Amino acid sequence: MCHTKKIDFFGNLMEYKELSEQVEAIRFGGSGRRIAILPDIFGLTDFYRGYASYIANFGADVFLVNPWAEFGGPRDISRDAAYDRRAKIKDKEYCDHLELFLAEQNIDAVVGFCLGGNFALELARRGYAGTNVSIYPLPWGMDNQDKITPAFEFMPTLSKEVTIFMGEADHLAGAENIRKIIDQVAMNDKLTLNLYSGSNHGFFTDIDGEDEQLKENALDAITKVNHILFPNND
Does residue 183 carry a catalytic annotation? Predict the structure, then answer.
């Protein structure tokens, strides 16, 4: 569905420390801007450890949260195993914990991927006012035993800024949902959409691929996120 393997572009994995507060997390860096990364349903894979290391090297204190810590690791790295473990989390309850975590840890930026992108939008709905980046979210909602409101129901009236990154060829979204995202973002100047022609769901990994246009899309998106998180480094 999303990201399992480390990509070379992010460089070497950094050492980290485990953190157990309102949510479980692993912490990279230790100084600079305080950023939380919310992963997809595969959890704390080497892709996310790599991305957290990459961001920390810009000068940040990065918290990679683990929604599935209490359930242990996946039985294998497969879509079926990821979905089995995903079903165990209670989305609304987990977002309650995340909300407290962001406040108590003074997190001033959130970057969410896929399901984590949904959580980022939900945090904005709840009033989180920090920098908020949602990467290939599923705003039509995901079924869950403790559902959060699908973002399509509140995106046009959202009062907090969120920057969204999507591939125009996202197979999970489909053309109809992509059109709906475009329309809803157009209704609300708090929302910014970066939409990449030809790119599919999970397109950040295209940075290590062979298709030059898709690599360019991925590089552009990764660079834009860097500029959002570290505007003073420009």
Answer: no
Q: CA 107, CA 219: separation in Å to the nearest integer?
A: 26
pLDDT at 133 over 90: yes
114 is catalytic: yes
Q: What pTM, to 2 d.p., does this model score?
A: 0.95
Distance CA 111, CA 133 (A): 5
Q: Which of 97, 201, 208, 220 is catalytic?
A: 201
Confidence band, pLDDT 50/70/90 cuts, at residue 1:
low
The single residue of 2, 61, 95, 114 carrying the catalytic annotation is: 114
Q: Among 170, 171, 183, 211, which one carries the catalytic annotation?
A: 170
Rounded to the nearest angstrom, the gap between the alpha carbon of residue 107 and the centroid of all alpha carbons in its chain is 15
Average pLDDT over residues 141-156: 96
List all residues 6 or more positions away from 42 whose beta carbon is below 8 Å from its beta carbon. Answer: 1, 2, 3, 4, 74, 77, 82
Pairing type for strands 60-65 and 24-29 reads antiparallel
